[in-house]
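queue> pop job 88
queue> type: inverse folding (structure -> sequence)
queue> payload:
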């Protein structure tokens, strides 16, 4: 099949490294990448007067799935998914850990054409090691209980030490994914953003989109992968 381009991008609420809210820069970076599927984290709405997911949907011409993890009178905050493919189903997964910031994941099945369906799970894990362990355990339970389809798990996992159990469990299930430094965007050192695919042979490449625009638009750089598999 024709390779599919997938990206994961923590948007930092549209606030760039110059501390200016400019969602049009996020849209510009997405335009540079031209991905078929984009997992987004730290999307902000209402408090800025802009629904970032809806704005990016219109700019990219994609379908959108919202996955807010914080919803209150001040606005929404959380995850989102953009895709040019038709969306067959969506499940929202709660990954909250008591005493910590609410977290979640979007679990979507996409129709990629010619009889090929793809399961995409996008998330943003917590800041503490213990909560990430709990969240990954729950995510893998959901993955195993779901449909037997080619699957992508991607997002900001807030982890870079391979010996930590969260990454170890993910590598055990999906196979080890390349670690590419995406944070901080001006001088990336930490591989906080990751992309896993099963079957592992479907993952053809993983690169960081390190353009001039990307270095200023957010505190993370986008992570971009090419995947392809035998639809039969």
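queue> result:
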């Amino acid at each position: 099949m024709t390779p599919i381009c997938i990206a994961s991008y923590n948007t930092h609420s549209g606030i760039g490294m110059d501390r200016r809210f400019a969602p049009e820069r996020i849209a510009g970076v997405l335009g540079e990448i031209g991905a078929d599927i984009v997992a987004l984290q730290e999307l902000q709405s209402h408090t800025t007067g802009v629904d970032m997911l809806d704005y990016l949907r219109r700019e990219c011409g994609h379908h959108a799935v919202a996955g807010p993890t914080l919803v209150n009178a001040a606005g929404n905050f959380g995850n989102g998914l953009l895709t040019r493919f038709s969306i067959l189903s969506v499940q929202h997964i709660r990954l909250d850990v008591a005493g910590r910031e609410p977290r979640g994941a979007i679990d979507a099945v996409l129709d990629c054409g010619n009889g090929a369906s793809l399961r995409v799970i996008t998330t943003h894990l917590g800041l503490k090691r213990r909560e990430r362990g709990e969240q990954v355990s729950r995510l893998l339970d959901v993955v195993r209980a779901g449909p037997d389809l080619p699957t992508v798990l991607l997002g900001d996992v807030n982890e870079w030490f391979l010996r930590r159990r969260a990454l170890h469990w993910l590598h055990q299930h999906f196979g080890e994914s390349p670690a590419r430094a995406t944070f901080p965007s001006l001088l990336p050192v930490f591989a906080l953003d990751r992309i896993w695919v099963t079957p592992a042979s479907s993952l053809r490449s993983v690169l960081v989109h390190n353009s001039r625009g990307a270095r200023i638009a957010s505190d993370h750089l986008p992570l971009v992968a090419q995947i392809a598999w035998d639809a039969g």
